[in-house]
Design brief:
The complex is a heterodimer of chains A (about 270) and B (about 325). Chain A is an alpha/beta fold. Chain A has one domain: Thiamin diphosphate (ThDP)-binding fold, Pyr/PP domains (Rossmann fold). Chain A contains eleven helices and five strands. Chain A has a five-stranded parallel β-sheet, sandwiched between helices. In chain A, helix 1 packs across helix 3, helix 1 packs antiparallel against helix 11 and helix 3 crosses helix 9. The longest helix of chain A has 23 residues. Chain B has about 325 residues and is of the alpha/beta class. Chain B has two domains: about 160 residues, Rossmann fold; about 140 residues, Rossmann fold (3-Layer(aba) Sandwich). Chain B has twelve helices and twelve strands. Chain B has a seven-stranded mixed β-sheet with strand order 2-1-3-4-6-5-10, sandwiched between helices. The longest helix of chain B has 17 residues. The N and C termini of chain B lie far apart (about 45 Å). Classes of the chains: A alpha/beta (about 270), B alpha/beta (about 325).
Chain lengths: ~270, ~325
């Protein structure tokens, strides 16, 4: 249980760092980033993903593609903390001399490939998963997508491909925060229940509270170890703008920024 | 052209197990043998060009040399963003990915404007860090196989959809560094062409010679990188230049490359640009019919060239 408490406090730290980034880079999409903090924290501090920050393309690493564009910024504090690059970069997001933009690009150590525009990550992950299978390698391929990203047709091309080729080394995590840019997804094109769609397409599915670290941990460990001959999806039910009441209740939270005063107040309250 | 390419690739796959071949449910007689022999390294992704490029990128990121194979307009335009964001941006990790795009120009003549591809040379050369190869004959096509294996990076191979006769013989120098070959020396005018149009260029040059116009022919097979400096040296000896490409005119294709090269290198010559106007081709007929309907048959092209040469000599 100690380790779970460690993960929880790490998640708080990641949120704080995210808010500090938001302070200097008001253009980042803070709501989209806040919904996936526990997922990323569990993946990287919970021992789910094997990595080597000193040898970023280490052959035995698990591959992780974060495909949800703006939300990918939530990965910045984690990569810095784990030594992929210096912590000083966090103070330079969007600034000359830094390596970090409002959406991360594939030249940043720790990111396998492009992280948006939306709809590319799962297809590229399919290619990686197929390659690892052909090479008889045991590493897994994790993808984090947004639920709004599922509107992209290319995602469904990849979903069909993964199932047909029995890519059981592929684990898709959907940050199911239920909100796109302009509205709730269900008001745009309602694809709930998401799990049913994946089941029909031949995937192993499970759903979990995406802010509950013990549940996330157990789901990820289980799916990583599962030998079922199917690709796996974990629908992580989350809240967009988690932890910020003004964002949580707003269908337009994707495009909302917080004032410096709001951020300072949140930082004071967080523990 | 595509058959010799696939046959040569088949031979390389026998000894190189790092080569993958992906198709978007598109075949060829020569492909049947390959996909049977290498069933573990041939993947038909289905009619899904976007996923074709993304899966290819993933395989390439893991060290495979990947060839993807699809119909030109769909590969180049439906999957354009995947080419840009996945195949090309991922080049930062040094991947080798080769897009075999079959059906350049009006290759698929009677299938109509959705299957024509008059845009690809323009929109592909726009993309940075990309090689755009436009072979005119099977000799070039086959020679590119070894080049593509050795030269890392994303490449676009603009293949004609129909079998074309050989143009290159042992006497010709093929240099992928130069990116073009002077097939015929001239004195009065020079035709610069690429792909299928080089076959038309030969017919045009022969007919011009009957009117005592000695036209040279330069076959450009690398639209990108485009060896402007070297090409300009050849162009300087002519007073009139004719560009011929089965593509839209003035949109960034070969004609634009030549025009820019002349202008920026202060080569002031007469220029006749032969290609397709700013409209889709809804006409029905075979390639020869479509050329005639669009005033690009040999006689029409001769007439335009002679008019331009004559008006320039008067001015």
């Amino acid at each position: 249980m100690d380790s779970i408490e460690c993960l929880k406090s790490k998640a708080v730290w990641v949120k704080k760092e995210l808010l500090k980034i938001h302070k200097i880079a008001p253009g980042i999409r803070i709501a989209s980033s806040l919904s996936c903090v526990e997922i990323l924290t569990t993946l990287y501090y919970g021992g789910i993903i094997n990595f080597n920050s000193q040898n970023i393309f280490w052959e035995q690493r698990d591959r992780f593609i974060i495909s949800k564009a703006h939300g990918s910024v939530a990965f910045y504090p984690i990569l810095a903390d784990l030594g992929f690059w210096g912590m000083e970069q966090l103070a330079l997001v969007g600034k000359p001399g830094g390596i970090l933009a409002d959406i991360p690009d594939c030249s940043i150590p720790g990111y396998e490939t492009v992280n948006g525009s939306l709809g590319h990550g799962l297809g590229v992950a399919c290619g990686i998963a197929l390659a690892l299978k052909r090479k008889n390698r045991k590493e897994k391929v994790f993808v984090l997508s947004g639920d709004g990203e599922l509107f992209e047709g290319s995602v469904w091309e990849a979903i069909m491909f993964a199932s047909h080729h029995k890519l059981n080394n592929l684990i898709l995590i959907i940050d199911n925060n239920k909100i796109c840019m302009l509205d709730y997804c269900k008001n745009i094109i309602n694809f709930e229940p998401v799990e049913d769609k994946f089941k029909v397409f031949g995937w192993q599915t499970t759903s979990v509270d995406g802010h509950n670290i013990p549940d996330l941990y157990h789901a990820l460990i289980h799916e990583k170890g599962s030998r079922i001959e199917k690709p796996k999806v974990i629908v992580a039910n989350t809240v967009k703008g988690k932890g910020v009441p003004r964002l949580e209740s707003d269908s337009l939270c994707h495009i909302k920024s917080l004032s410096i005063e709001e951020i300072d107040k949140l930082l004071m309250e967080m523990h | 052209m595509r058959d010799v390419f696939i046959k040569a690739l088949y031979e390389r796959m026998l000894t190189d197990d790092t080569i993958f071949f992906l198709s978007a449910d598109f075949g060829a007689p020569a492909l049947d043998k390959l996909r049977t022999k290498f069933s573990d390294r041939f993947v038909n992704v289905g009619i899904a060009e976007q996923n074709l490029i993304n899966v290819a990128t993933g395989l390439a990121l893991e060290g495979f040399t990947v060839y993807v194979y699809a119909i030109a307009p769909f590969l180049s335009m439906r999957a354009y963003e995947q080419i840009r964001n996945s195949a090309i941006l991922a080049q930062i990790r040094g991947i080798n990915i080769n897009l075999i795009s079959v059906g350049a120009g009006l290759s698929y003549d009677v299938t109509g404007p959705t299957h024509h591809c008059l845009e690809d040379s323009c929109i592909m050369t726009v993309l940075p860090n990309f090689i755009v190869f436009s072979p005119s004959d099977p000799v070039l096509s086959e020679k590119f196989v070894d080049y593509s294996l050795k030269q890392s990076g994303p490449k676009y191979i603009r293949m004609d959809g129909k079998a074309q006769p050989e143009l290159y013989t042992e006497g010709h120098i093929i240099s992928f560094e130069d990116g073009f070959t002077e097939l015929r020396k001239g004195t009065d005018a020079c035709i610069i062409s690429t792909g299928y149009m080089t076959h038309q260029a030969i017919k045009v040059a022969e007919k011009l010679s009957l009117d005592n116009i000695k036209a040279g022919i330069i076959d450009v097979y690398f639209l990108k990188p485009f060896n402007e400096k070297l090409l300009v040296r050849y162009l300087k000896k002519y007073k009139h230049i004719i560009t011929m490409e089965e593509a839209f005119l003035n949109k960034g294709g070969l004609d634009t490359l030549i025009e820019n090269a002349c202008f920026s290198n202060r080569v002031f010559v007469g220029l006749t640009k032969l290609g397709f106007g700013d409209r889709y081709v809804f006409d029905v007929g075979n390639r020869a019919n479509l050329y005639k309907m669009n005033e690009l048959d040999i006689d029409n092209m001769i007439s335009k060239i002679k008019t331009d040469i004559t008006s320039r000599s008067k001015s």
